[in-house]
Amino acid sequence: MAEPVIHHRARDYRELFERLLSRLEGIFRTENDILLYTASGTGGMESAVANLCSPGERVVVVSAGYFGERWSQIARAYGLEVDELAYEWGETPSPAELAIRLDELGSAAAVLLTQSETSTGVVADIEALAEPAREAGALVVVDAISSLGAVPLETDAWGVDVAVSGSQKALMTPPGLALVSISPAAWERAARASSPAYYFAWEPVRKAQEKFDATFTPAVSLVQALDVAVGLLLEEGLEEAFDRHVRLGRACRAGIKAMGLDLFSPDEDRSAVVTAVRVPDDVDGQMLVASIRDRFGITLAPGQGPLKGKIFRIGHIGYFDVFDITTALAAVELALAEAGADIERGVAVTRALEAFEHTVV
Ligand SMILES: Cc1ncc(COP(=O)(O)O)c(C=O)c1O
């Protein structure tokens, strides 16, 4: 990003953009078009709703946390009829329940899913959830903002019509770019949809990207950075990166449990993005996160919405190794001990390292 900014209408940019788009196909595991917007991930989500749907149309939102609720908010803003398959925050969505809901409804234009619900640490089974959606004739739209590059997303093999991601999570780039993959069926639907869109309209972006050009001035430095970052990811190997994330998740959960803390995220291998932990009863969760940040320079995420103060979250996606986990665990241990919490000291780091090293993925 410190390199000179190249001109976005010149050959250098086209070469960069062509390489980036072909690398992204490898990350999304798709032959579909992948459009790039200078926007945060939510812009990519909004583009999906705006381009696929017409006012009054019904969509089903599978919602189990803060970001599932965002799908509903966007869809309502576009005048859609939103049917929510809503779960308590922290629950894992059930494909069988989605099938029943779709059956009861008769039809839906699209099913809006969240792969990694970052607010709770739950990673949904997109492959299984996509099946009833496809059978009901609904488009499968997935928020993969915090999951792409960390856990498997087989866009084509699972029949995902639209997958949305962002630069700033497992793609290891500063915030500011949204990525949207679009299947032929989604393009067909988009040709008929009547919601308004201008900056986020898909068709002009596709036309520009055919020539490796951009509709509007792109965030050139971020595009340069994303190209390097996805290059690193492919160099590591996507499968190897998924394995590393599984082991990081196991290490984090092992350390947390060894201290005697309760997990909020499910204790399963898919939970490889962020680990959510219940704050002990007599401790103020907001203060805990603030004190770990101020004293040790370690940023944990607090709980959002109804989980504010009740959980804290340790993220482990992207440019991350086991020592980042052990450092975070050591800081949590120290801060909790000083806050008077009843925890087991001196074991979390060892258990985390063991879980990272001795598990076969
Ligand atoms: C799962 C998920 N969806 C959507 C978003 C929103 O993305 P952005 O803040 O880039 O708009 C985030 C951001 O944390 C996320 O984790």
Order of helices and strands: HEHEHEHEEEHEEEHHHHEHEEHH
Please indicate the count of domains.
2
SS summary, helix count: 12
What percentage of amino acids are in beta strands? 15-25%
The CA-CA distance between the termini, in Å, is 34 Å
Which fold does the CATH topology of the largest domain refer to?
Answer: Aspartate Aminotransferase, domain 2
Give the C-alpha Rg.
21 Å
Overall mean confidence score, pLDDT: 97
Shape: globular
Helix content: 40-55%
Number of strands: 12
The biggest beta sheet is recorded as: 7 strands, mixed
- Output the CATH homologous superfamily of the largest domain: Type I PLP-dependent aspartate aminotransferase-like (Major domain)
Low-confidence stretches: none
What is the structural class? alpha/beta
Q: Which class of the largest domain in CATH terms?
A: Alpha Beta
**Which strand order spans the largest sheet, edge to edge or round the barrel?**
1-9-8-7-4-2-3
- Give the name of the CATH architecture of the largest domain: 3-Layer(aba) Sandwich
Bound molecules: pyridoxal-5'-phosphate
Task: Give structural notes.
- The structure is a single chain.
- This protein has 361 residues and is α/β, with parallel strands linked by helices.
- It has two domains: 11-236, Aspartate Aminotransferase, domain 2 (3-Layer(aba) Sandwich); 238-358, Aspartate Aminotransferase, domain 1 (Alpha-Beta Complex), CATH 3.90.1150.
- Helices cover 44% and strands 15% of the residues.
- The chain contains twelve helices and twelve strands.
- The protein has helices at 11-28, 41-52, 66-77, 95-105, 126-135, 184-192, 202-210, 220-236, 238-258, 285-296, 322-338, 348-357, and strands at residues 33-38, 58-63, 81-86, 110-114, 116-117, 122-123, 139-143, 162-166, 177-182, 274-278, 301-302, 311-315.
- The strands form three sheets. The protein has a seven-stranded mixed sheet, with helices on both faces.
- Strand 2 (58-63), helix 3 (66-77) and strand 3 form a beta-alpha-beta unit.
- Helix 1 packs across helix 8 (220-236), helix 9 packs parallel to helix 11 and helix 9 packs antiparallel against helix 12.
- It is globular and about 60 Å long.
- It starts with 10 loop residues before the first helix and ends with a helix.
- The model has no long low-confidence stretch (mean pLDDT 97).
- The structure holds pyridoxal-5'-phosphate.
- The site of pyridoxal-5'-phosphate has 13 residues, from helix 2 and helix 3.
- Pyridoxal-5'-phosphate (PLP) is lined by residues 40-42, 67, 70, 114, 116, 118, 143, 145-146, 166, 175.
